Amino acid sequence: MIDSWRAALPFLLAVLFVFYFERASRRRGLEPPGFRHPARRALGLAALALGLAVTAFGPLAAIGRPEPVATDFARVAGWELFAVHAALVVTTWVWFVSAYGGSGERFASQLGFATRRPLAEIGVGLLFGIGAWLVVLAAAWAIAVVVSQLGGEEIVPKRPPAAVAWLVSQSVFLRGSLALSAGVVEETFFRGLLQPRVGLLASTALFALAHLSYGQPFLLVGITMLSLLYGLLVRWRQSLWAAVAAHALFDLVQLLIVVPSVLRQFGGFFAE
Length: 272
Prior knowledge:
mainly alpha, 10 helices, 0% strand
């Protein structure tokens, strides 16, 4: 019975959120013209619900289960690392085509890519990304110190998640591609599609939930802070380009420099 509820929970939450999404979009004057047709509305909202169930609410089903160890990922193929991003791409595209048709100009304007100076926005994002990385790193360290002093040392992670530890053993090309994919795909979905329609806080909550599968709740503090910063950056720049650059840069630094350095310092994969 518990397993049945665990499996059904992501889909129930996704359906509830889609109802909220639709009402919030209408309240903000962002109801798509294509949704005047019942079939297109049903298709677009069903795609959004399914995508959210798999990517954002899906990790909730793993709560209470043992955290995977590094060896659990030994049979994972490189292309499987992009499965979640592929699901977000399909979700975004089906929703957009149902809502607005296939116009590239509409895609840019409705999902945050319309700007006259994309290269300048990318430059702003790279500078912002460096600053955000330093701010989040300092804040996470300070919070960890406070939590430890208050007797909560056991909840402060002593090692990176097994998934991340395994990932940094992969090729530089694969890690770089994954970081760039995360910057483009995740920002398009969470900040381009969701944030204008449900707000900064709701889109940030879903972004954090999507990263719950790391199995270390403390890491959600940094992830939530980053999501808020990227959301505020989108509000400031009125486009996604800067947030895409900042997000991709952060992931590149983490996957290519920071986490590998930590693992080398502690002698490779952490013992389970």
